[in-house]
Structures are given as structure tokens and as C-alpha cells.
Amino acid sequence: MTGKIRGISGPTVHVDLKGLKLFERVYVGRDMLTGEVVRLQEDGAVVQVYESTSGLGVGEPVKGAGMPLTVRLGPGIISGMFDGLQRPLERLRDVMGPFIISGREIYAIDYTAKWLFSPSKKIGDDIAPGEIIGFVQERQFKHFITARNTTSKKLSWIADGEITLGDSFARFEDGEEIMGCFEWPVRIPRPYRRKLPSSGALVTGQRSIDFLFPFARGGTAILPGGFGTGKTVLEQAIAKFADVDIVVYVGCGERGNEMAEMIEEFQTLKDPWSGKQLMERTILVVNTSNMPVAAREASIYTAVTMAEYYRDMGYHVLFLADSISRWAEALREISASLEEMPAEEGYPTYLASRLAGFLERAGVVETMSGAIGSLTMILSVSPPGGDFTEPVAQACLRTGGVFLMLDTSLAHRRHFPAINWFQSYSLYSKKTTLYYNDKVSPEWEKMQLRCREILQKEESLREIAEIIGIEGLQDADRLLMKVAGMVRTDFLSQNSFTEDAFSPPEKTFSIIKGILDFYDSELGKLKEKPSHVE
Amino acid sequence: MRLSEHRYRTVSSLAGSLLFVQNVFEARIGEVVNVLAPDGRSMVGEVLRIEGGTVLVEVYGETSGLDIGHTTVVFTDSVRKAPLSPEIIGRVFNGSFEPIDGAPMFIPEKQEPVNGFPINPAARARPREFIETGYSVIDGLNTLVKGQKLPIFSCAGLPSKEMVAGILTNARLTEGGGKFTVVFAALGLTFHEYSYYMEVLEGMKTGFVAFANMADKPVMERLLAPRFALTAAEYLAFDKGMDVLVIITDMTNYCDALREISTSREELPGRRGYPGYMYSDLASLFERAGRIRGGKGSVTMLPVVTMPEDDITHPIPDLTGYITEGQIVLSRDLHQVNIFPPVDVLPSLSRLMQKGIGAGRTREDHRSISNHLYKYYAAGRDLRRLEAIVGRDAMTKNDILMLDFADAFEREFVNQGLSRRSISETLDTGLDLMKRFSLDTS
Ligand SMILES: Nc1ncnc2c1ncn2[C@@H]1O[C@H](COP(=O)(O)OP(=O)(O)OP(=O)(O)O)[C@@H](O)[C@H]1O
Ligand SMILES: [Mg+2]
Fold first, then answer.
1. CATH class, A114-180 region
2. Crossing angle for the helix pair B315-323 and B251-264, nearest 10 degrees?
3. Would the CB atoms of B277 and A253 count as touching at under 8 Å?
4. From the list B147, B287, B346, which residue is nearest A288 (CB)?
5. Across-strand partners of A341?
6. Residue A256: which of B119, B319, B346 has the nearest Cβ?
7. What residues 262-291 of chain B have any CB closer than 8 A to a CB of chain A?
8. Options 1.20.140.10, 1.10.10.10, 3.40.50.1820, 3.40.50.300; CATH of A74-84+193-426
9. Is residue A410 within 6 Å of ligand 1 at its C-beta?
10. What totals of helices (H) and strands (E) does chain A contain, helices first?
11. Are A388 and A406 in contact (CB under 8 A)?
């Protein structure tokens, strides 16, 4: 089915093609730029183009793909680096040079690479929908191959040994084949049997998080903060050290240099849990701020679909996006070019529901094959002017389970991570505290309460101290101020560029215990000594 | 490709710099058009929007004198390109890339689209090589590295012009660093500023290419000038292997032009009237800074932003800060006590500094000196508030020492007037200062 371009305005293109479906993928122009149908009209359709439309002309051909925007799922994605449409950036560089010049489509998956397939089923076995039929070894992971039939069927043939993704892995009696890879529409969540309540702590190796605002596997966390407050450094630190199997990181509308840095580090640093190179457990999706805006909008969906795919194999997957505000801005630009009625600050009225729908893709699930997998989400938010009342931060707040407010004044004092300990919260505290009490020390919770108390007291004393000077305080108060200072600088601060970047829970515990023991012993000394005369 | 130019006399309406042309055959987005006024003047425009045969064109020049009926629009079938040649070095152009230094136009070796192409993130090399600006407060505490974008946040009335002049004259690479060139783009210049900068350029020892967009030129040219500058910079860097420092002043004029044009297009205004796409638009400029893995050359950017109402949360500095890799913040207080450059160290930060300093890059003790200076100065600054409340006499000896150190740091380390300091002089100045106050530097 082909037609012609009738009009162009920014990234939106009017085409005269009829019979397209909403959200169908469309190839636009002679360069076959990727687009998506966003509106159907009597005389044709409006297509959102995912690449730069500069130079695109009226009259150029358009063609419907017959399916929505999809990603390719199969072995070989891990340690890959893709743009917002899942084009592999390294191969793109090899064919196009250092600049991304055209919208040429390149598949994410290499169909010629050889894999070793170990079947776990045999001829004659009954296969239920979503059942695992075997695996290939993808780096340190068993990459399970699942059947995608809709009703139970018998296998008439199954491969064993060396295979490429172009080959079929198994065949049913009715002739239907099971392939090693397939396409999945990015905007449709992958199916699972049922959702389970989020369970267990997700250890991040960041003291202020694990101790004060713990993450849960399958949960969501929101990190809002003005520029330079440490969102990226914190997300990358978590991506390095979190106790998960697989990490999917989206550089959404942010800096290219940051990504270069991340790639370099992830190729040299080791995952502290498995001892393997970090990149070997990581998938990067990168759509920097100067890459096409519409592909930026798609990038988080591309990424989360890959994350769900590995979750479906029973892995614990961590999804991080930096920054969701840039995604929302892309949504706003698209909405404006469609001349939709804007709501607050020009964002479309569906901003909050889209975001909520997206965050719903996090969770712990029982997969179609009966395994337990989890998908945890961490999103940074970049509020304009550091003003948290703006629509994106507000929409995130309503759905996030952990809220880490990054504070510009802490960042200016170079207290990092600049997590404001009064305004941040975790809704997972109860459950995860049980985990740490059990795994690290039964004193975990008690110490957590004391730590909070000390910080509270310091705050109320600080005002007085600012007026009369610290020397004017009573001994006990002065001691408290000193201990609070230790909590802040020796415990909560954690420089990501030193050895201290990763703090396993045991270390976290021993530092805070050291400080509190010191406090107790000094308090004891004060009691022995007669307090000074009033 | 169309085989011939298409000429139309079908302008159906005109408003400000926008004109509608009817019955156009197969126009392209971003296509350059030449608009011929009835009085024989010619100006350049660009296709903004197409709906069937109706094309919306934005004209760069002065549109008064255009009419319906006699105005001719010529479609060129090409997007806006910059002419390039090694001969651009040492030349001064206006915002439309026409020479204004009296010498004739050069013969281009090639043409490249002014919007450039995004660097593939997988092809980027991590910035890590030091560029010396000659200012201690930058080199010592907020080090600039090749491929970085580091803006100067100024306020109206502060000497950002003099600071830029200093960098133009003094910036260089360390020994064996490569071929260094400055691309200078001045946007919305008054004649007074223009004369000032021309004098500075004349005294320059390094190679330069300058683009001067005057305040009385049509606002479209203000959007175009930095794109020409960056296309020239990318050419010198990635085609010719040079290390190019791009200085753009003043991005606030650029953003105001963007707002003006967006309003004239009747687009939905965002914060303070600036368009919602300003982040992406600024990023399309700033992200052109970088280095390429396995290649020579680099583009480093030092844009100047004047913060309206001294407000760092204003959309212009705010969005800039969200894109750049740090910021150098100027302070009115320091300027008032005659400290030059009046850089406030506390809110300033170079995010890429860590990898660019130390042994083999600057000096082994750089990191330690810089951390200590920052720490002591921050402590001293904190105490100024207490001093204001309780008075100096009520403070401990140690507190007074820190207060005095902060003063000395501003007067002797930050302040350097018009002199140039090498990185070694910078570090020694800092070290000596701390020794004089018997501060621990280990
Ligand atoms: N945990 C940390 N340890 C040490 N330094 C840090 C830490 N976090 C942030 N910083 C410092 O703050 C700078 C800015 O941090 P980062 O790039 O993460 O900010 P951001 O919030 O992502 O800003 P933007 O919104 O502009 O992207 C870093 O370059 C680094 O100098
Ligand atoms: Mg960031």
C-alpha cells in the first residue's frame, strides 16, 4: 500500500494513504523514515515521523508497514546500545561514520550470528502458551526461548546445537514454527500470568537509599532535581551497583558526552555481585537531546519492552530513564504539532495517564512460564527552574513508590547524593526493613529511627546555633550537632568518584553503627561529668 | 532532485516575516528560497510548513516592500548550507556568512547543512584533555576540557565582555596539544560592542573565525549565525583535525530572537513566553560540542548567557544548565569590590573536570589543591553570615582565620585583573595562599 506526502509541519506529515490503522508503522519519503500513524482522517492520515524531516518533500512516497512500531526481541540484545527506535548505534556508526546522517533502518538483531541451543523439550511434548522450550547462552545469562502459540500443541520437531536466529528452533505438529526472535509492539505491555506484590529490597549500594529510603524489587522510584543536583550520577551509580540481573538504561534527551563516559566505564568496571564486566548485564537506549524528538518519545517504550522481555525469563531487571521530563517534553512537542488542546504548561491532557500507564509496566510478575521476574523503574525528573509544582513532577509523584528529592542547596554545598532527608520518602520502608533486619542486622530498624531523630533534632538546633554560635549551645546539644554532622558527612554523603561509590549493606550498617556507638559513649561521658553551671 | 529552479509569483498573503505561496509543486521542509522583491532586492527564506500546494515561507531579510502579485519566490531544492574552506581562518563574517572584513569571499571547498547531524553517541570520545583559559578560577577550580560545553552565566552590567576578550586572547592548549582555533560568534551586537571585539580579534595570536550578527539585523539571522559558526567549527575540527573553541555571546539574545519568531508564528508559548521546544533547540546547538573516537579534533563550547533579572531559574540559564556540562557563574558582589573575573566559585562547576586534571594532564596535585581551596573558601563564606550576626569579636580564632582566608582567596586567587596565569602559576598561587594561612593541604 503506497501513497504520497501531502503536507509537512515539523515532525508531523499528512499523507493521502487510506486504510492505515492507528499507531501503524509507516515508511515516509524516499529515505524511508520511520513514522507512526497518530490520527486517521477521511482523506488520509497524520503520521508522526521519528527522524528529522529536514529536506523531506511533498509528493514523496509513503508506505504502511502493516504493523505498529515494534522492537525485535531475541538473543544478542544484552550489552547492546540502541537509539530510540532500537537501531544498533555501533553498527550504525560502522556503516554511516560518526554522524547519524539518515534514517536508514538497521535491525537490532544479528540474524547471522551463531548460537548454541539447548532444548529442554522433546518431540511429542505438549507445549502450553508461553512455555520454555530451551535456552541459548547469552553471555552469563540463560536466554530462554519460549513458545508463542496461543493454545497447547504438540512438538513435531526441535533443534539442538548450533543455530542462527534466521532458523526455526522448533515446529508444532500443525506446521507452526517457533523462532528464536520476534517483533513486539512497543506500546503494548508484554503478557504475564499475574502480578504479585512487590517483594524484597532492591539493594542499590547507596547508603542514603538503602538505609533511609529503600527501594523494592518491582517498585518505582522518582528522582526529581534541578540541573546539577546529581540525578545522572546517582542513576548511573545505581545502574552500576544495584543487586539485579539486568539493567536497561535510557539516556532520554540528555547529553552525548555523558553516554560516552558511561560506555567507557561500563566496559571497564565490574558488577560487584557477579564479578563480570558491567556492560555484560546492561542494555543502553540512547536518544540524546539533539537526536529527533519523536524518537525520544518512543525511546522509553523501546527500552521497557526489552526490559519486560528479560523479566519474562524470570530475571530481575532494573529500568532507569534519565530524564522522563525530556520524554514529556517530546510528547508536548508532538501534541503541539498535532494542534491538540493543551492543558497545564502546554502539556497534553493525557500526560498523567500516559505516565501512569508507563509506570504500571513495573512490577513483580509470575511469568507465562511460571517463573518469578521483576521490573523495577527509576525515573529522573528535571523540573524547570527546580520548581516541583510543575506538571511532570506532579504526575510522577502520584504514582512513584520512592521519592528522592534532590536538593539544589545540598548540591551547591557539594553534599552528594543531594537527597533531601526531610522531603524524600519510601513507601516500601516497612517491607524492606524486615529484609535488612533479617539479612544484615536486627538493629537495622532501630538505628534507622535514631538516625532520623538525630537529623530532626539537628534541624531545630541549627537555627539557634546560627544566632548564638555553636559555642553557646549546651554540651548535649553540641554533641548532637557534632554527631549529626558525622551522619551527614561520613554516612549520608557518598562520593561516586571514589572507592566509596559502592557501599554494601554490611558496610552501610557498620558506618552508622560506628557513629551511633560513638554518640552513646560520649553521652555516657557527659552524664558522668557534672553538667556545667547554668 | 528537481532539474530546474522553480519560480512562483503566487504569494497569497504576507505577515511579518512569513509569507504564503500557492500552487507550489513538491516543496521540501527547510528548503531555501530566494525572495525577489518588486524593487529588485533579494532575500533568503526557508520553507517552514507545507500543506498540499500551499507553502509557508519564513524570510530572513527585511520584508517591508514585499507585495502580493509582483514578488517572486524561487525554490532552490536545497536546505540551508554553509560554504567551507580552510580560508575561513582569520576572517570576519556577518550572521549570513558574508565577509565584512573588506576582503573578498573565499571559494568554498565544500558545503554542509547548517543544522549539522547528531554525533552518534557510540562514536563519541570522552572529553578529558585540558584547555587553558588563563583564568585561575576556571583552570584551577572549574577546568575546561576539549569537547565540553561550559557556559558563563552573567548578569546585566557585569564584565562578561572583558572576560570573553581575555579568553579570546589567552586560551590555548598545553604543550603539544594540537592545532588550536577559536570560532567566535557574537549575536545581537551593538556597534560599540562590535568595535570592542574587532580590536580584540586584531590582537589575537591564535587562529580565529568570527561571525558578527549586529543588533539591527533581522532576528532570523540571529538564529542562523551560531549554526554557521558551529558548522564551520565542526569542519575545522573533524575535517581538518583542529581543536576548536567556540565562544558564543550572548545566548540570551539568541533565545529572545527564538521567542520573537515563535510568537510571530503564533506558536503556543511556554514559560515566560519562550517556546516549548527551546530545550531541544538549544541542545541542537550545544550538543555539537564533542570529540570523536579514533579521530582528531574537537569542538568545545563556551557560550555566554546573561541571566535576566539575575535569576538563575529563568528559562534561559535554566535550560542552558540542563544541557551543558557545568556553569561558570559571575557575581555582582565580587564585581562591586573590583574583583576580576568576578566568578562565584560556590555555584560554579565543571562537570567534566575530574578526568581532565592530574598527572599527565595538568599537574599531579591539581585535584587536591582544588578540593582544599573549595572546602576552605566554602567554610569561610558560610561564616560570613555568622559574622554578620554575632560580630567578628565573638568568633573563635579558627573561624576568623577561615573568614580571612575567604577574603584573601577572592582578592588573590580569583582576582587577577588582565594578567594571564598558566595552570602552574594558578596552582602555585592557590598552594601559597593555603600555606600562608597554615591550612592543611594534604
Ligand atoms: N554522588 C556524587 N558524588 C560526587 N559528585 C557528584 C555526585 N553526584 C553529583 N556530583 C557532582 O555534581 C555534578 C552534576 O551531577 P549530575 O550530572 O548527575 O547532575 P544532574 O542532576 O543529572 O544534572 P542535569 O539535570 O543537568 O543533567 C557532577 O558532575 C558531579 O560533579
Ligand atoms: Mg543529568
1. mainly beta
2. 110
3. no
4. B287
5. none
6. B119
7. 267-271, 276-277, 279-280, 283-284, 287-290
8. 3.40.50.300
9. no
10. 13, 28
11. no
Q: Is B292 left (phi over 0), alpha (psi -120 to 50) or beta?
A: beta
| A158, A195 Cβ separation under 8 angstroms | no
Return the beta strands (E) in A175-332 as ranges. 177-179, 182-185, 194-196, 199-202, 215-217, 220-224, 246-252, 282-287, 316-322
In this prediction, does ipTM exceed 0.95? no
- The CA distance from A194 to the nearest CA of chain B, in Å, is 38
Pocket of ligand 1 contains residue A232 by CB under 6 Å: yes
B102-111 mean pLDDT: 95
Query: What is the pLDDT averaged over residues B405-410?
Result: 97
Render A89-125 in DSSP notation, one character per residue. HHHHHHHH-SB--S-----SS-TT-EEEEEES--TT-
A47 part of contact set with chain B, CB < 8 Å: no
Q: How remote is the CA of residue A506 from the centroid of ligand 1, in Å?
A: 26
Residues A471-476, mean pLDDT to the nearest whole number: 83
Q: Which three cell numbers stand for residue B238?
A: 573533524
Mean pLDDT of chain B: 92
Distance CA A231, CA A225 (A): 7
Query: Looking at the CA of B317, which ligand is closest?
Result: 1
CATH topology of domain A444-528: 1.10.1140
Res. B428: pLDDT tops 70: yes
- Contact assignment for B26 to A57 by CB distance below 8 Å: yes
Residue A35 is classified by DSSP as E
- pLDDT of A531 reads 55
**Residues at Cβ < 5 Å from ligand 2 ion:** A 231-232
Cα distance between residue A84 and residue A299, in whole Å: 4
What CATH architecture does domain A2-68 belong to?
A: Beta Barrel (2.40)
Going through A229-371 in order, the beta strands assigned E by DSSP cover: 246-252, 282-287, 316-322, 363-366
Q: For cell 500516559, name the residue.
A: A354
Closest of A175, A138, A140, A137 to residue A156, by C-alpha? A175
**Yes or no, beta carbons of A55 and B277 under 8 Å apart:** no
Q: Return the ∠ at Cα B420 (arms to B419 and B423), rounded to 5°.
A: 140
CB contact under 8 Å between A9 and B49, yes or no, is yes
Report how many Cβ contacts below 8 Å link chain A to chain B: 190
Provide the CB-side half-sphere exposure for B17 (13 A, CA).
24
